[in-house]
Amino acid sequence: MSMFACLVAGRLVQTDIQQVDPTHFVCQIANPETVNHVVVFMTGTTPFPEGTGGAVHFGYTSSSGVDWHFIGFISNDKPSAIFKISGLKNSARPNVPSFMGDMSNASGGAASQIGISVEPLSQIVQQTPTSQAQTDVAQFTSKLLENFYNFASSFAITQSEMTPQPNVSFVPSTVLNQWYENFKRKMSQDPNFWKK
Fold first, then answer.
1. What are phi and psi of 89, to 5 degrees?
2. Cα(137)–Cα(42) distance, rounded to whole angstroms?
3. How, if at all, do strands 4-8 and 37-42 pair?
4. For a Cys-Cys bond, which of 24, 62, 110, 158 suits 20, CB 3.0-4.6 Å?
5. Quick one: residue 167, left, alpha or beta (phi over 0 = left, psi -120 to 50 = alpha)?
6. Pairing between strand 112-120 and 80-84?
């Protein structure tokens, strides 16, 4: 029996984890477009070596090979975890060292996989899961826009309050409000839309 197993809701537990090399393991995920969350856990047959854990990655096949996203970790002290993988396929490729380095599809052509890399815990805990990074960017952007909108709106005046100033441009606050609402809508639909 493998050291690890994966579980997708509504499916059987997958214990057929493929060991790619001494520190890398891969689990195939069929029909990934129907999967929101996956549970990765240790089966209890073998513990991690002292001071190490399993960095868990989600990978999907793209035109450039397999795009891997760090999604979290498991360890002897935390032998199971639930990871959200829906939406990761549409997110930007992370600019971090990836699971299996630059190797292309080491797992035989599956559309999606869960990869587990045995690494020192001190290195794993310093990594930021892709979903958390996306949430942080979305929250920062939202707060930035809200702050700008509130600041600019504080200077709003009515047309009757305006005094002619030939060197000053005015933007109607309704335009600012429309822009703000459009940006919030786009951000909620795709946090990475601004990269396109």
1. -65, -30
2. 32
3. antiparallel
4. 24
5. alpha
6. unpaired
